[in-house]
Amino acid sequence: MRKFCFLHYFMVYFNNGKGDCMTAITIFGHRNPDTDSVCSAISLSYLKNALGLKTKARVLGHINKESKFVLKHFGVKEPEYLNNVKIQLKNVSYSKGLLVRETDSIKEVMDYLLEKKMTAVPVINEYKRLVSLITLKEIAMLFVNTSKDTLNTSYDKLLKALNGKAILKYHEEFNGKLLAGSYQSQTFMENVKLSPSDILIVGDRHKVIECGLKSKISLIVLTNGYELSSDLLSLAKENKVSVVSSPLDTYNTCNAIALSNYVKTILLNQNPSVVYENDYLTDFLDNAHKQGFSNYPVLNKKGECLGLIKVTETGKYEKMPIILVDHNQLDQSVPGIEEAEIVEIIDHHNLGTIGTKVPINFRSMPVGCTCTIIYNLYLENHVEIPKNIAGLMLSAILSDTLILKSPTTTELDKDAATKLAQIADEDISKYGYDMLKAGSSIEKMSVEDVIYQDFKSYNVGTMNLGISQVITMDFDSISKNINTYVKKLDEIAKGEYGAVALFITDVIKNGSYVLFNTESQKLMENSFDQKLEEGTFIKDLVSRKKQMLPRIMDTLEKQV
Questions:
Q1: Are 448 and 488 in contact (CB under 8 A)?
Q2: Average pLDDT of the segment spanning 99-114
Q3: 211 CB contacts (<8 Å, ≥6 apart)?
């Protein structure tokens, strides 16, 4: 069984290019997480990791007092919050690493774009910060329309652009005016004033070269493969003038030198539209449609540029692999779930609305708690259960079955609880009561917080049904504010629900007080076969899954 489980994951997720061995699977329960939801995610994550997978447990909301008590009691850290599983740009197969530096030459940038078959590329500085976005079209237009009378580059990049020969090197970089020594020697010496930053392009004109060397200019570029005579070479060394020999004629040497300039010398778009790697793909596509651009530099949260994304290359992406526990309803799950890849579901509720495009492991059992199923997975895979994990699973079972008193309780739940209590070294009755008591206090909680503490939505035909269940031994504090609770239930119902009910379950009394939105009174009375007022106590009514929900749904279906 252990081999089957591992191979299933490997085939479903890691094969066929859908993922890699470093991609972590995220495990989580439903929104408004209860103890079973929290503990199931943690316990299953531990099991999967023990079987060789990489997983992480998460929660979809703030955990309640009971769950906090459990985690603290067994020394387990609270899982991090997961707000959605939407596809982010970091999951898209965009052109990561497509970058040039501002000190790359124009020729290097052109060659790079042609090699990558791209029309644009982000330009970054030495700190990986975005400087500009440059396109082939901009380079071509600037090269044609811009004056080529200056040079700002390095010796090595100049040499590379010319495919030239190094003669003398006294300068790492050049930043000066370009001069072509095409005049007669006498005319040049009489009319051209040279400065130390100048760069002279010249052929076999001895006097012009000598004039440049004596003026101690920064660089002489010799055309047509010409090389200095011994006396000129000595003069160049004496005056520390750098010299390069170009195999090209004067015209082509001038063009090649212009291409050797740092690309930062021709940047136009200093403030391009950017996106961030954590942006959502759907948001990016919407914004790109509005802006009308095709190319966007991608930045990380540090502001470093990571590459370029094109609107046309957003079709390939890696979905987040997820495992659902304790739910299989879309409206109870994480936002963006349709963009994720569900690889497994483990649940003990009725089948919901979540569907998948490929077969997955779906483990559903009619037991009182998801952790009962997970406990049996530990047994099937022969994985030893640590004390703290045993405590978490025990807590979930006792919570969901109301210390094994709920009608949802099965023999499997009782057996699992007994074995887990032994491992965790806990007394079921005492620990269960302490746990429920710790989580049942509603002191300092707002009416809205009480209602939404464990609120679930269901769809029955065309109607949405909302059922909240609160386990507390302090109904008195609620009874003092019944009108406020009913008003809030009415507000919730007007928003999107046909009926909303709040059941306040008292484990000691083994029953529940019921509150409901005003317009659903008849529905509630028909569902529980008795006259009901706000706050009526119904004996033996403790299970939302097996008692509250089925009765209300039956009544609604009869009305259709």
A1: yes
A2: 96
A3: 185, 188, 189, 194
User: Domains along the chain?
Assistant: 2-87+320-438 (3.90.1640.10), 447-559 (3.10.310.20)
Average pLDDT over residues 459-470: 90
Nearest to 377 by CA among 50, 16, 14, 78: 50
- What is the model's pLDDT at position 462? 81
Q: Are strands 305-310 and 321-325 parallel, antiparallel or unpaired?
A: unpaired
User: Are 373 and 39 within 8 A, CB to CB?
Assistant: no
What average pLDDT does this structure show over 94-115? Answer: 96
Q: What percent of the chain has pLDDT over 70?
A: 96
Please tell me the number of Cα atoms within 13 Å of 184 on its side-chain side: 3
Query: Please, what is the Cα angle at 555 between 549 and 556, to 5 degrees?
Result: 85
d(CA 254, CA 556): 86
Question: Which helix (DSSP H) or strand (DSSP E) does residue 514 occupy?
Answer: strand 511-516
Q: What pLDDT is stored for residue 12 in this prediction?
A: 43
Rounded Cα distance, 365 and 369, in Å? 9
Amino acid code (one letter) for 489: L
Contact in structure between 196 and 242 (CB atoms under 8 Å): no
- pLDDT tens across 424-439, in order? 999 999 999 999 988 8
The pLDDT score that the predictor gives to residue 441 is 81
Rounded Cα distance, 57 and 213, in Å: 73
